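Margin note from the TA: students keep mixing up input and output lines. Inputs are the sequences; the output is the structure of the whole complex. Example:
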Amino acid sequence: MDTRIYAHRGASAIAPENTMAAFKKAVEFGATWIETDVDIIGDGTPILIHDSTLDRTTNKSGSYYDLKVEDLDDIDAGSWFSPEFAGERIPTLRELVAFMNETGLNANIELKSNEAGAKMSLELVDAVLRELEALDGPQVIISSFNHVLLKILKDKAPQYRVGALFVAENLWDDWRSMLELVGADYIHPDDSTLTRAQVKAFREAGYGVNVWTVNSPARANELFNWGVTGIFTDNAHQMLRH
Ligand code: G3P
Ligand code: CA
């Protein structure tokens, strides 16, 4: 398996996370894979945003669960990062898919664990699968901390490779059962407590191992020496090996 650098939320150290500017910068710096987060708004449009509110990464506040796609035009997702990015919008998944088709960029798409309940969570899965039908060539991995949602997606669309995300606190000794039940292809563990023995066990069990979030080049090198298959980094612009 090739080793990969995933530009986490795009080139998020040098451009506002999860915007087209961040994805374009990632491509400029040679990224072949990005990571992004997807959730859903009130009219069923999947959008790319990490948090469950607009507060941290836009000029608006509150939930986006009641928005319509036209409302996105009035939300600035760039100024909080730097005035240079004023006017950047929250992208839709559809815009990203079009960009991937244009550039050949591949993406790890993380399904956010929607906070509005089961109905909207299932709508998110269906809406993401609908948008991905337009992909023409580029690869995707779909990941989530919500392993129930991930299994539902994998059952509906077994053609997609999926990665089960774990925080250190829930990476228990039952990881193999969890991965098998989900039908996962990859495990995506938190870097903070990851050990060489764990990486060895995951690899011996046949899983790809993509670790988040690794911003130190020295740590990235160590992890690759341990046998991990990929890292998510905010510093893809510095770490990409040409
Ligand atoms: O997918 C890796 C990483 O993005 C998971 O954590 O909180 O940055 O979405 P978070
Ligand atoms: Ca993420």
